[in-house]
Specification:
Bound molecules: L-rhamnitol, zinc ion
Strand content: 5-15%
Radius of gyration: 22 Å
Largest sheet: 8 strands, parallel
Helix content: 40-55%
Shape: globular
Distance between the termini: 43 Å
């Protein structure tokens, strides 16, 4: 590590300082990778899904709140840095009685609140506007059916009250992200009315500002069953966010298959104070593959760091894969996100900017290229060390985990 430090010093980078900065940035871990986005409600029908579908048949899916929490503890032991937990409304624990989503209350999350406090995790939240009979027709908040739309408006409001309880219990903000699956498979003649209805429904859900509750709205281009039209498109929510208190949520997998989001950040953050990020990895038509330390992810964090805006973005994860060991999938994605953050923070930004300013473009490119082979692995290992987490050795724990749950979860 001493050598690594010196390499970076030559470029004006203080590795120890960078590591500390990186460790302190919270990453909000989604609860839904543990159980393939199934949730804890008494399930009616998988076809109520609203386009969210985890594929793969790897054994060991968590089937209860306790199993999800146990899995998350395994994960938390192997990921460095500070974290939050991102819950969905369908992870309410209502005991023997089933509670309609528009009647959910903070009490139904008391297990989560207690556990999160013990783990020192702040909680974030999401209303679940899918996987429900009232999502079956493909429209929720934008439904023309007043009963259905009313139900989802009440659900949104109930969830904001729950987010308020989270914020109070943890003494810090709770981010609540509103994503709806609404859209059409093919050629709607009226693209207008659903958007008008979504706008007024959101106004109703979000009308009262709640201290400690940070609302976000998430756009999408297309989904399973909504290939042609998604009501809550990027343009819709970018405008909505600019005219309301809600943050815009950018999911890396919610754009055209070859479209990336890093170039949007410096544009949107001219007008928005902050953004919510759903860190994900699109793969052809799927938006939620396990996150890897790849060029796209690196470009996002590089942009944020180059604009000194890491602290203006709330970082949440959104991926799910049922085809591999689920807890390992978590660890891979969370570590990849932290790595991308570290790599960005280790970039000699001021030198690069200076060269660009002076028109010394070849030198700028050369410097960028040289920094790619700096001893990043040593800095990463040091970060893991400092956070009290194993380096690559964690891979050896996967087999033991499989053996441990194999007998019970099938
Ligand atoms: C769906 C959105 C949304 C969900 C989660 C489960 O396309 O990305 O964020 O993945 O709410
Ligand atoms: Zn998302």
């Amino acid at each position: 590590m001493q050598d690594a430090r010196r390499f970076y010093e030559d470029y004006g980078i203080d590795v120890d300082h960078v590591i500390q900065t990186c460790i302190n940035v919270p990453i909000s871990i989604h609860c839904w990778q543990a159980d393939d986005v199934v949730g804890l409600e008494a399930k009616s029908d998988a076809s109520d899904s609203g386009g969210i579908l985890a594929t793969g048949g790897h054994p060991g899916r968590a089937r209860s709140g306790d199993e999800i929490r146990a899995d998350l503890e395994w994960v938390l032991d192997r990921v460095p840095g500070s974290h939050r937990l991102n819950l969905h409304a369908m992870y309410a624990e209502t005991g023997a009685t089933s509670v309609p989503r528009d009647e959910l209350e903070p009490d139904h999350f008391s297990n989560w609140i207690e556990w999160a406090a013990g783990q020192r995790l702040g909680l974030d939240f999401n209303p679940t506007y899918f996987a429900h009979p009232y999502a079956k027709e493909g429209f929720t908040l934008s439904s023309q059916n007043r009963d259905i739309q009313g139900f989802w408006i009440r659900h949104g409001k109930a969830c904001r009250r729950i987010a308020k309880a989270f914020a109070e219990a943890q003494n810090s903000d709770c981010v609540i992200n509103h994503w709806i699956p609404d859209g059409a498979k093919d050629n709607p003649i009226d693209r207008w009315a659903p958007r008008a209805r979504l706008r007024s429904a959101l106004d109703e859900v979000l009308s009262v500002p709640i201290p400690g509750v940070v609302d976000a709205v998430e756009s999408k281009l297309f989904g399973l069953g909504s290939e042609d039209y998604v009501v809550g498109s990027f343009e819709f929510y970018a405008q909505y966010a600019s005219q309301s208190n809600a943050l815009l949520c950018l999911d890396m997998g919610h754009f055209h298959p070859t479209e990336t989001i890093h170039d949007k950040l410096s544009a949107l953050l001219q007008f928005q104070d902050d953004l919510l990020l759903h860190v994900s990895r699109p793969m052809r038509w799927d938006s939620d593959h396990v996150v890897l330390f790849d060029d796209n992810l690196r470009a996002v964090f590089a942009e944020l760091n180059r604009g000194a805006s890491l602290n203006r973005v709330k970082i949440a994860l959104d991926f799910f894969d049922a085809s591999i060991n689920r807890v390992a999938a978590y660890v891979i994605g969370i570590r990849a996100t932290r790595k991308a953050m570290l790599a960005a923070l280790l970039e000699p930004v001021s030198q690069l900017k200076q060269l660009e300013l002076e028109g010394r473009f070849a030198e700028k490119l050369a410097l960028l290229e040289e920094t790619k082979t700096l001893p990043f692995g040593a800095a990463w290992n040091e970060l893991c060390d400092r956070a009290g987490v194993a380096g690559a050795e964690w891979i050896q724990d996967i087999q033991a985990y499989e053996a441990n749950i194999g007998g019970t979860r099938g």
